[in-house]
Amino acid sequence: MKSILVFVLFLGISQAVMGERGSYQARLIELKDQGNDEFTLRLVQLSQPFGYQHKKDEEILIHLRFKCPLYECPEDGDNPTVQKYLAAIDLLKTQIASAKTVKFGVVDRGYAIIDGTKNEYQSNGLDIQEDTVYSDFDYFDY
User: Fold this and answer.
1) Rounded to whole angstroms, how far apart are CA atoms 14 and 96?
2) Which of 7, 23, 68, 99 could lock onto 105 through a cystine, CB 3.0 to 4.6 A?
3) What is the distance between the alpha carbons of residues 66 and 124, in angstroms, rounded to a whole number?
4) β-strands 120-123, 58-64: how paired?
5) Within a 10 A sphere around the Cβ of 88, how many other Cβ atoms?
């Protein structure tokens, strides 16, 4: 009984650290280089992640950057890295050039609304899993 409890606790902690991942269908419109490895991604969201009901297709603008406290960014393991971020940017460029609908993913909330804007969001890290780019806003806030 004790070992089952430890296993369940370990599973819960590992899921919380990794974050819940979901994806949605998107039509990527434009990726603009803003300098200093920051970009803006304009896309049309065609569905909802995590099984939520989709109400309408919406164009959104996501500001992409890699933001990480120095003490929390080892270059190994499953942690976000600037190399993973730049690889995801390259994949987005390829997907835009192919001009087809793709899956775009979010980890937990994925990106956060920028105060005072409509449909404009901030992402602080990107990763790739199974040819899907995943956005994460607050990976380092757990």
Assistant:
1) 34
2) 23
3) 5
4) parallel
5) 22
In 1-107, alpha helices (H): 2-18, 82-98
Query: Which residues lie closer than 8 Å to 38 by C-beta, 6 or more apart?
Result: 63, 64, 65
Place of tokens 């607050």: 138
Name which of 27-31, 68-72, 106-110 the model is least confident about.
68-72
Residue 106 near residue 135, CB atoms below 8 Å: yes
Domain spans of the chain?
2-141
pLDDT of residue 77: 63
10 Å Cβ neighbour count for 82?
13
Q: Specify the pTM.
A: 0.81
Residue 91 tokens, joined = 């994949």
HSE value, Cβ hemisphere, 13 Å, CA-based, for 4: 1
Query: Which value, in Å, is the radius of gyration of the alpha carbons in the chain?
Result: 16
